[in-house]
Specification:
The complex is a heterodimer of chains A (262) and B (208). Chain A has a domain of 136 residues. In chain A, 63% of the residues lie in helices and 3% in strands. Chain A has a two-stranded antiparallel sheet. The C terminus of chain A is likely disordered. Chain B has a 5-stranded antiparallel beta sheet. Chain B has one domain: Nuclear Transport Factor 2, Chain: A (Roll). Chain B is 59% helix and 16% strand. In chain B, strand 4 and strand 5 form a beta hairpin. Chain B starts with a helix and ends with a helix. Chain B is α+β, with helices and mostly antiparallel strands and 208 residues long. The chains are: A mainly alpha (262), B alpha+beta (208).
C-alpha cells in the first residue's frame, strides 16, 4: 500500500525532473525544494512542538528506554544487512545484541549489550546496495519522509522485516509508529537550532550532508577523501606529491585493516 | 625566594613548550573536558546565553583552530584565484559563522559525556585524525572527528567531521554556487549578511 504510493510518487518526481538545473547529484532540485519547504513547515508547526512536549513530559530514563526499544528492533535489519555485506563477524555480534537486549534488556528497553562491549552498528539496505557498487542515483526529498536517494528508497523494504507493521492491532501499530517518529525527532531537537545558525542555504546544506553521510556510512565512517580535497588546499599547506598520494592510497587500506579488528 | 622563582621559571620554561606540543588526542581530550565542565557549571550558559558561550569559545578554543586552512578547504579550487584581501575577509566571515554555530550547538548539550579515543600516531606524523564520541542519554552517540595538523604553535584543527561528514567540505557546494553567481566578493557578501542577521537576532534576544 505504502510502497505503491511511493512508487507513484517517484515516477511523478522523475518525470517532473526532466527540467534539470545543473547539480548532477540533484536533478530534481526545483521539485525537491518545494517538498522540502512543505516538510519544513510541517516540522515547525507540528512535529517539532510535539517532540518538545514529549521531551518535557517524559523523564530521561523513560525516553532512553523508548529509544532503546526501537533501536533493538532495528538490530534485526542491521544484522541481515551486515550478512548481505559479508561482514559475518558483525552480523553475529548483531544477533548477540538482539538476543541479550530482548531478554536481559527486557524487550530492548535497556541496551545491556553495549555495556557488555557489543558495539551498535548502523546498516540498512541502501548501504548494502552502496557496498555492492550501486550509485546513489538522484537525490530525492519525499513528503514526510525527507531526504533520500533513488537507491536509498530501498530502505522502505525494511518495512517487510520490521516487526512493527506486522502487529495486527491497528491502534497499537499506529501508536508505535507515532512514538517512533516523535522519538526520532526529539533526538534531533538539539541539531535543529545549530543547523539554522550554520546553514547559508538550509536545503543545500541538508542535501550535501545527507549525501556525504550516506557515503560515510557505506564506508563505515571512513570514506576515502574526495578528489579535490588536496587540490583545494591553500598553497602553503600543500604537501609533496608523494604525501598527497599517500592520503589517497592510505585511507582505504587503513579502512580495511580497521574493519577486521573490532 | 629567588630559588622558588628560579624553580618556577625553570618549570615554566620546561612545561610551557611541552604544553604547546601537547599530543593531539590529549589536547582534544583536555579541551572537551574543559568545555563540558564550563557548560555544566556556567549559569549564564545554562540559561541559554549564546553570547557568553561565544565568549568562552573565543578565548579558550579558537587558538587551536586553523581558520585560514579551514576556509581554503571549504572554498575549494577557487581559493587560489582569491586575492589576499579576499582571503582575509572570507576567513573572518567564515570564522564568525562557525564560532556562532559551534557555540549554539555546545550550549545545547548539557549532560553529555565525551570520549576521546586514544590516537595511534607515529612521532613523525604531521597530520592526524583524533576521533571522539559524544554520548547523550536517550540519544544515539554522535561521532566527532578532528583533523589536525602540526604547526610551530602546536597541533591545530583544520576540519571537524560530525557523524562522518566533514563540516568544512559540506560548505563547498554552497560556496561554489555562490561564487558562480557572484564571484568571491558575492560569497563574502552572503556570509557577511548571514552573520549580521544572526548578530541582530542575538541582540534582539539579549534585550528581552
Amino acid at each position: 500500500m505504502m510502497t505503491t504510493r511511493l512508487c507513484a510518487l517517484l515516477i511523478a518526481a522523475l518525470l517532473a525532473g526532466c527540467a534539470s538545473t545543473g547539480n548532477p547529484k540533484d536533478p530534481l532540485e526545483p521539485l525537491n525544494r518545494k517538498v522540502f519547504a512543505f516538510n519544513d513547515a510541517l516540522d515547525t508547526y507540528a512535529l517539532q512542538p510535539v517532540a518538545k512536549g514529549y521531551v518535557a513530559a517524559t523523564p530521561l530514563p523513560v525516553r532512553s528506554g523508548i529509544g532503546n526499544f526501537f533501536s533493538n528492533l532495528d538490530d534485526v535489519w542491521t544484522g541481515i544487512n551486515n550478512l548481505l555485506q559479508g561482514k559475518v563477524g558483525r552480523a553475529g555480534s548483531d544477533v548477540g545484541r538482539l538476543l541479550i537486549n530482548s531478554t536481559v534488556g527486557i524487550f530492548g528497553l535497556f541496551d545491556v549489550a553495549s555495556e557488555l562491549g557489543l558495539e551498535k552498528h548502523d546498516e540498512d539496505l541502501g548501504q548494502t546496495l552502496g557496498v555492492w557498487g550501486v550509485g546513489p542515483g538522484p537525490y530525492l526529498v519525499l513528503p514526510l519522509l525527507g531526504s533520500t536517494t533513488l537507491r536509498d528508497t530501498a530502505n522502505f523494504a525494511s518495512t517487510y522485516v520490521d516487526p512493527v507493521p506486522r502487529i495486527e492491532r491497528v491502534a497499537t501499530r499506529n501508536t508505535l509508529r507515532a512514538v517512533k517518529l516523535v522519538d526520532t525527532r526529539a533526538q534531533l531537537l538539539n541539531a535543529g537550532r545549530a543547523l539554522d545558525e550554520a546553514a547559508i542555504d538550509k536545503y543545500a546544506f541538508m542535501r550535501d550532508f545527507y549525501l556525504k553521510r550516506r557515503q560515510s556510512q557505506i564506508f563505515d565512517g571512513r570514506p576515502p577523501r574526495e578528489e579535490d580535497d588536496e587540490a583545494a588546499l591553500p598553497v602553503p599547506f600543500q604537501q609533496t606529491p608523494q604525501r598527497a598520494a599517500d592520503l589517497f592510497m592510505a585511507q582505504p587500506v587503513e579502512t580495511a585493516a580497521l574493519q577486521t579488528d573490532e | 625566594m629567588s630559588k622558588i622563582l628560579a624553580t618556577l621559571v625553570f618549570a615554566f620554561g620546561f612545561v610551557l613548550p611541552a604544553l604547546a606540543q601537547e599530543a593531539p588526542d590529549a589536547l582534544v581530550r583536555n579541551l572537551s573536558n574543559e568545555m563540558s565542565e564550563t557548560v555544566r557549571s556556567d549559569k549564564a550558559i545554562q540559561s541559554g546565553d549564546v553570547k557568553r558561550m561565544i565568549e568562552v569559545v573565543e578565548t579558550r578554543i579558537l587558538k587551536h583552530f586553523d581558520f585560514t586552512r579551514m576556509t581554503g578547504l571549504a572554498v575549494g579550487r577557487e581559493w587560489r584565484n582569491a586575492s589576499a584581501e579576499q582571503k582575509t575577509a572570507l576567513t573572518a566571515e567564515f570564522r564568525t559563522l562557525l564560532v556562532r554555530s559551534y557555540a549554539n550547538a555546545l550550549g545545547q548539550y548539557k549532560n553529555q559525556t565525551i570520549e576521546v579515543k586514544p590516537l595511534k600516531a607515529k612521532p613523525e606524523d604531521t597530520e592526524v585524525v583524533v576521533r571522539s564520541e559524544i554520548r547523550q542519554p536517550g540519544s544515539k552517540p554522535i561521532t566527532l572527528d578532528y583533523d589536525m595538523g602540526k604547526s610551530s604553535e602546536g597541533w591545530r584543527v583544520f576540519d571537524v567531521a560530525v557523524a562522518g561528514v566533514s563540516l568544512v567540505t559540506n560548505y563547498r557546494e554552497t560556496f561554489s554556487q555562490e561564487i558562480k553567481a557572484g564571484g568571491i566578493d558575492g560569497l563574502i557578501k552572503t556570509l557577511r549578511d548571514k552573520n549580521q542577521q544572526s548578530a541582530a537576532k542575538l541582540a534582539e534576544a539579549g534585550k528581552k
